[in-house]
Amino acid sequence: MNDGLLSIENLSKGFSSSGRRVAALDNVSLTIAAGETLGLVGASGSGKSTLSRILLRLVAADAGSIRFEGEDWLALNGAPLRRRRARMQMVFQDPLAAFNPLASVGAVLDDPLRIHGVAKDRRPGEIVELLERVGLTADHAGRPVRALSGGQRQRVAIARAIATRPSLLVLDEAVSALDVTVRGRILELLVDLQKEQGIACLFISHDLAVVRAVSHRIAVMDGGRIVEVGPAAAVVAAPQSEAARALVAAVPRLVTDPC
């Protein structure tokens, strides 16, 4: 893994609630290397989704800096930002909400290719390649999104995200709505794609067991702050923060002793 893909320094964001200012992010600093998966875990309301939305430039930060692929990410606007968005893509928890449910799978995948300048005669072939890369077939291109299963829709969401050849995927609770079997297959797909293409991932979840399965390092959030960062195995085996210990304690364990 190479250093320096993403660097977040002292990022802060507050929101007004009931007449008072609430800190959603409080001087958050993180790095992600090229080809690395950083798991970001924390309880609901800890600031994880706010961080992801600032990264995607869906929400403005109050303070702090983000450097992505050597550029000042927060300084980009207009056409330069639109071009650079191809390099950082997001996979949401609910892909159906992120798609036009009446659209076909082919139309969903055609959009990013068209927007980012892929020639019209090349797009059908690239759509088939994307579908095959995520374990679907060319026949899926003609199906409406609403007719797919949850796992198939999430595969299409991943195919759309990698269509622009990003260097970073931001996955916000991307498998939490799936059943255990489908979740495992999607996690395997993400690991395989990372090995094949060297994509870095920011994998956001409240589920420490899922994050442990795919992450090189884990960062723990609590109350808008990063309270612990370390190798995934070390954070799970010997959590140092109260928030991490609570997450570890919440991971289900199989009961092997007889009743």
Task: Describe the structure in your own words.
The chain has 259 residues and is α/β, with parallel strands linked by helices. It has helices at 48-55, 78-84, 95-98, 105-115, 123-133, 150-162, 180-197, 208-214, 232-237, 242-250; strands at 2-17, 20-34, 37-41, 63-68, 71-72, 88-91, 168-172, 200-205, 217-222, 225-231. The chain has a six-stranded mixed β-sheet, with helices on both faces. α4 packs across α5 (123-133) and α4 runs parallel beside α6 (150-162). Belongs to the ABC transporter superfamily. Keywords: ATP-binding, Nucleotide-binding, Plasmid, Transport. Residues 6-248 form the ABC transporter domain.
Which oligomerization state do the chains in this entry correspond to? Answer: single chain
Structural class: alpha/beta
- What is the averaged pLDDT score? 88
As a whole number of angstroms, the C-alpha radius of gyration is 19 Å
Per DSSP, the total helix count is: 10
Helix content: 25-40%
Largest sheet report: 6 strands, mixed
Which segments are poorly predicted (pLDDT under 50) over 5 or more consecutive residues? Answer: 254-259
Major sheet strand order: 6-7-8-3-9-10
Overall number of strands: 10
- The run of helices and strands is EEEHEEHEHHHHEHEHEEHH
Characterize the overall form: globular
The CA-CA distance between the termini, in Å, is 47 Å
Q: Strand fraction band?
A: 25-35%
